[in-house]
UniProtKB/TrEMBL annotation, chain A:
Transmembrane listed as a keyword: yes
Domain Cytochrome c assembly protein, residue spans: 35-194
Top-level taxonomy: unclassified sequences, metagenomes, ecological metagenomes
Gene Ontology cellular-component terms listed: plasma membrane
Residue numbers spanned by region Disordered: 1-23
Keyword annotations from UniProtKB, A to Z: Cytochrome c-type biogenesis, Membrane, Transmembrane, Transmembrane helix
GO molecular function, one term: heme binding
Protein name: Unannotated protein
Family classification: Belongs to the CcmC/CycZ/HelC family.
Native species: freshwater metagenome
Automatic annotation (TrEMBL), chain B:
Official protein name in the record: Unannotated protein
Pfam family, one: CcmB
Topology in the lipid bilayer: Multi-pass membrane protein
Subcellular location: Membrane
Transmembrane among keywords: yes
Bilayer-spanning residue ranges: 21-40, 46-67, 98-120, 126-150, 162-180, 200-223
Protein family per UniProt: Belongs to the CcmB/CycW/HelB family.
Gene Ontology molecular-function annotations: heme transmembrane transporter activity
């Protein structure tokens, strides 16, 4: 995970974030990550679709799991980063909006990948269990997590100053950390003994070596994609904030220089 | 802090006693929801089996209205800002609003439970009274604490009417689960015994403790603008 270094919003804004044309969120580092992501995804497609064998019991539907596990991994990492960045923002009460932007960018990516997880999971469930949805504790709390972070993104969109947005959403993100385990625990209690289906399925399966390797490729490829998306999105958010801060000044300055000319 | 909480709670309840908004609007709303459930489920047997769940679901819907009302009386004249400007402890504001909300919720829940007895033929039993009262107290505290927390967040920003349910309902899901199962145990719905109910009260207690502490800490940063 890239670490934000700059303590103040001014210095954390990339130089290229000025409203002049030609601004870019790419750097040599993100281009390298992007290239690695493309290679990783290519490798995942080859391993997932062709090299790894079909499962004895699930046949070809097992290939969905490479996507499912990869996306859910990214979603969990993304939400963890959101929580940690939010805590970092609140911790010292510094004015570093960089932490806030990391939290926001990460939550957006998390919501996207959680949606893909639920989609891939329900397709796999239809093939393996004959139903799109089961009231399993893990599945249900995943859905709750998805809705909770949609709410978090809505809180981010409420408006007000950047610092207001940052404080409000950081508190909501930390409350989500309180909520998710409680929901998981209570759904688990609610299901009682019925909740074993998915767990049993997973513990009985011994993974073929190539399957395990393909899964590993999936985790690496999706992690790279996450880092790439996070860095770009964080910079876009910084540009948006800079535009909010400086946009009007810049426009005034333009008009004035037109007057002078 | 406790003095502030007491004064604020008394103030909120006095406003309610004089305006009667909850009595004249929220209670009838909750009653019509109970009737609508019966329409939707369309079976005496089903309705009496799921009566505890319906009571709590109707409570959650009413909670949304109550929370909005609780903060509408503050934001109308910028009262929260005035309190903050006066240097009042936000934790005191939080607890005071939560206490007032809890009292209103408790009245509402008793009415809903009685309507379940009348409309859905839910059976109260003497052996379950202690469990029933404990469940209602714990669930009411939990709902009031969380409702006040997210109500405070949603107050003072545009779009709060639509945002509150989205934020609040996922968080109170454990209360719905715990309170429903404990109430089922207290009433003996579906052959549940009283002893089945206590673990669920434990869940409610954990919820109250976590959000009581979390809410007291979080409320200040949330309302300070």
């Amino acid at each position: 995970m890239p670490t934000p270094k700059s303590p103040t919003p001014e210095t954390s804004t990339p130089a290229s974030a000025a409203p002049a044309g030609g601004a870019s969120t790419g750097t040599a580092f993100t281009r390298a990550i992007g290239l690695a992501t493309i290679i990783g995804m290519g490798a995942l497609a080859v391993f997932g679709l062709f090299i790894s064998p079909a499962d004895v019991r699930q046949s070809d539907s097992v290939r969905i799991l490479y996507i499912h596990v990869g996306t859910v991994w990214v979603a969990y990492v993304a939400f963890a980063v959101t929580a940690l960045s939010s805590a970092a923002y609140l911790w010292k009460r510094t004015t570093s909006l960089t932490w806030d932007r990391f939290a926001g960018a990460s939550a957006e990516i998390g919501v996207l990948f959680m949606a893909l997880t639920l989609l891939a999971g329900s397709l796999w469930g239809r093939l393996s269990w004959g139903k799109f949805w089961v009231w399993d504790a893990r599945v249900t709390s995943t859905a709750f997590m998805f809705i909770t972070y949609i709410g978090y993104l809505a809180v981010r969109g409420l408006g007000g100053s950047h610092q207001q947005r940052a404080r409000r959403s950081a508190v909501v993100a930390l409350l989500a950390v309180l909520e998710i385990p409680l929901v998981h625990f209570s759904v688990k209690l609610w299901r009682g003994l019925h909740q074993d289906s998915s767990v049993a399925d997973r513990t009985h399966v011994t993974l073929h070596g190539l399957m395990l390797f393909s899964l590993f490729v999936a985790l690496v490829a999706f992690s790279l994609l996450y880092v790439w998306l996070l860095m770009h999105r964080q910079r876009v958010l910084a540009m948006q904030d800079a535009l909010d801060d400086k946009g009007l000044d810049y426009a005034l300055q333009q008009r004035r220089s037109e007057g002078d000319a | 802090m406790l003095r502030v909480a007491r004064l604020l709670a008394a103030k909120d309840l006095r406003i309610e006693l004089r305006s009667r908004v909850v009595t004249n609007q929220v209670l009838p709303f909750a009653a019509i929801v109970m009737v609508m459930f019966a329409f939707a489920l369309n079976s005496d047997a089903v309705v009496s089996r799921v009566a505890p769940g319906l009571v709590w679901l109707a409570t959650l819907f009413s909670l949304l209205t109550l929370v909005q009302r609780s903060f509408a009386i503050e934001s109308a004249d910028g009262a929260t800002d005035a309190l903050r400007a006066a240097g009042v402890d936000p934790a005191g504001i939080y607890l005071g609003k939560a206490i007032a909300l809890a009292v209103q919720l408790a009245v509402l829940e008793v009415v809903l439970l009685l309507s379940a007895v009348v409309l859905y033929r839910a059976q109260l039993r003497l052996s379950g009274v202690v469990l029933l009262v404990t469940t209602f107290v714990a669930a009411t505290c939990g709902l009031a604490l969380v409702g006040t927390l997210y109500g405070g967040l949603a107050a003072g920003v545009r779009g709060r009417e639509t945002l509150l349910p989205l934020l609040l309902l996922p968080v109170v899901a454990p209360v719905l689960i715990g309170a429903t199962r404990a109430t089922e145990a207290a009433l003996g719905t579906g052959g549940a015994t009283v002893a089945d109910g206590w673990p669920w009260v434990g869940l409610l207690a954990v919820f109250v403790a976590l959000f009581g502490v979390g809410g007291t800490l979080a409320f200040g940063p949330l309302i300070e603008e």
